[in-house]
TrEMBL record:
PANTHER family per UniProt: DIGUANYLATE CYCLASE DGCN, REGULATORY COMPONENTS OF SENSORY TRANSDUCTION SYSTEM
Name of the featured protein: GGDEF domain-containing protein
Spans traversing the lipid bilayer: none
Coiled coil stretches, renumbered: none
A Pfam family this chain is assigned to: GGDEF
Ranges where the GGDEF domain occurs: 192-319
Length: 328
């Protein structure tokens, strides 16, 4: 049988030598268990865990594991025992350093038994190799489980972050998500201009009043889906609330750079049944502010200016300029 671990080679002749010293191995293991219990008792975490299963049971578990060391390490059952050991330590929150500290008692146990057993003990070379194989396999299992748990926790955090920044109805960013996007832009690209545009659907209230909120929600979802396809990957689209949307254009300093884009969005409204239009207000970053709250306040004032102007347009406050989008 060939070695399954190139780092710790183990030949058929090694295993034959190992087997002929089985009695000596059991003597080492008995000596080791006594030393390991002393180490475990000095560790608060280990002692607490052991006391939950009783010391007698823990002793049996140690003896049972080290009796597997008499087996051929190339066998799947032996590697499985080592992996279970690493997993158990991980789940018990026992650090690898204490894990190795305890298992290092194997070598003093070996030397203590040398005077009594002499040639009845296996060569120290094999003892080291077998010990390394066992511990390395256990630590690999420990590491694999740790990475798995970290990945699970990271995914949970990502899911929570997505929930925190996502509008549940449309799947777009919500107000908080849009705010985070602009704050990140301010931190990383403070010298690059941008535009925050608030868009409001003209006449949308009539849908809710006449057909109910489910119909209105469906229209908002269709609008979000249509507009999402028109947004560049480095821009942001959010549903602020109700029928108000927020649009963040980076690399754009003047409204004229995005008016044709906004007109396409107005034309893309799923308004076959109802002749909806769009009104909007524009705030410039950094001229009108760097913080989301300041930009939002400016864009909101411009939005109401557009409504009072007759709707179907988007405007800036200073200077007051109006750009037609659609008819109300």
């Amino acid at each position: 049988m060939e070695s399954t671990n190139p780092l710790f080679p183990w030949s058929d002749s090694d295993q034959e030598t190992w087997q002929t010293h089985r009695d000596g191995l059991y003597a080492i293991h008995t000596q080791f268990v006594g030393r390991a219990l002393t180490v475990a008792e000095a560790h608060d975490g280990m002692r607490t865990i052991i006391e939950t299963v009783t010391w007698e049971r823990f002793t049996q578990m140690l003896q049972g594991h080290f009796h597997t060391l008499a087996q051929d390490p190339r066998l799947a059952i032996s590697s499985e025992a080592s992996r279970h050991m690493g997993t158990a330590h991980m789940r018990a929150h026992i650090s690898p350093s204490w894990f190795i500290r305890l298992f290092n008692e194997y070598f003093p146990a070996y030397h203590e038994m040398q005077e009594k057993w002499g040639d009845g003990l296996p060569p120290l070379r094999l003892v080291r190799t077998r010990w390394l194989w066992d511990v390395a396999t256990a630590l690999d299992s420990y590491n694999d489980l740790l990475h798995h748990e970290i990945a699970q926790q990271s995914q949970k955090v990502a899911d929570l972050m997505a929930y925190a920044y996502q509008d549940p109805l449309t799947g777009l960013l919500n107000r908080r998500g849009l705010e985070e996007l602009i704050e990140r832009h301010d931190q990383l690209y403070s010298n690059i201009p941008g535009l925050l545009i608030l868009l409001d659907l003209d006449g949308f209230k009539a849908v809710n009043d006449q057909f109910g909120h489910p119909a209105g929600d469906h229209f908002l979802q269709e609008t979000a889906q249509s507009w999402r396809s028109l947004i560049r990957s480095h821009d942001g689209l959010a549903r602020i609330g109700g029928d108000e949307f927020g649009l963040w254009f980076t690399f754009a300093g003047q409204p004229e750079q995005v008016i044709s884009h906004l007109q396409h969005m107005a034309q893309a409204l799923p308004s076959k049944t109802f002749p909806f239009g769009v009104s909007g207000g524009i705030a410039r970053y950094p001229d009108d502010g760097r913080r989301f709250q300041d930009l939002y306040r400016q864009a909101d004032k411009a939005l109401y200016q557009s409504k009072n102007h007759g709707k179907g347009c988007v405007s800036t406050l200073s200077p007051p300029r109006f750009y037609p989008l659609s008819s109300a």
